[in-house]
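Ligand-bound model needed. BV8.
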Amino acid sequence: MTIPAQLIQKLRAAQRVTVLTGAGVSAESGVPTFRDAQTGLWAKFKPEELATPRAFRQNPKLVWEWYAWRRQLVADVKPNPAHLALVELAERFPEFQLITQNVDGLHQRVGSRNVIELHGNITRTKCFEENTIVTEWPDRGDIPPKCPRCGGLLRPDVVWFEEALPEVEMDLATRASISCDVFLSIGTSSLVYPAAGLPIAAMRRGATLVEINPQPTPLTAQAQFVLSGPAGVVLPELVKHLRS
Ligand code: BV8
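Prediction:
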């Protein structure tokens, strides 16, 4: 994987770097991406059909069990070299902001700090009625379990399709995107908004736009640098060039 010398120069000169990650960063840890076909008992469902309030209202048990399966899968995997390289990358710049669409918490598990989670976190649970976080509940065998305060159904603390993103996180992510020198979009299909609008906003404000992805995306044509490879290979290579 050759890293363009011009990109290394841009990064060496950068004061502020912002990164947006998607499911592709966790792919090499064994976490299926949204674009991957679902396997096993989930093969007949599309994620965008399950990750909605409507699906939860229609079949709360099915949606709860899908998240329980994903929660267990994430608990059993390990962060990969892409996650680790981002921890080192953060130390190279006076200002660095990591924004993620992922709900697996792997960035935090490997030591990334003040990560902006645009779409929530699968390890947190909240009450569907009160929209408040619930950390423990009596196990009465209900699936989904019920809120100990109001009796409403519990749900994962993630942002479903057609749900608004958390305002504070979106505001912080927007500020970090429009004020950075270099914006790296890593492992995302750049299809889901408003997250996919962040690299565009960065580029409009003059940031150098870098995409790291083995496949082309709607962003590819607009990126100044496109590193076509797996994040677990490209990011360690990029960091190595910045060390010397
Ligand atoms: C919103 C959490 C408005 C849940 C996710 C109708 C009504 C309302 C809204 C809409 C509508 N129609 C469209 C919209 C907007 C909608 C949207 O954008 N839809 C798309 C499909 C067109 N957005 C929303 O609904 C958002 N909310 O707009 O609200 C609103 C405002 C005010 C009040 C009320 C409402 C909410 C979007 C968030 C949805 N939640 N996740 C969960 O996880 O279960 S989205 C989910 O998919 C991810 O979080 C991520 O954001 C998104 C895309 O996934 P990616 O991360 O990009 O992963 P993907 O699989 O797509 O791609 C993987 C990539 O990795 C690929 O490119 C692949 O090549 C690459 N890759 C593979 N291996 C590697 C790799 N890269 C590097 N290395 C590797 N090894």
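Strands lie at 16-21, 95-100, 116-117, 120-127, 154-158, 182-186, 208-212, 225-227.
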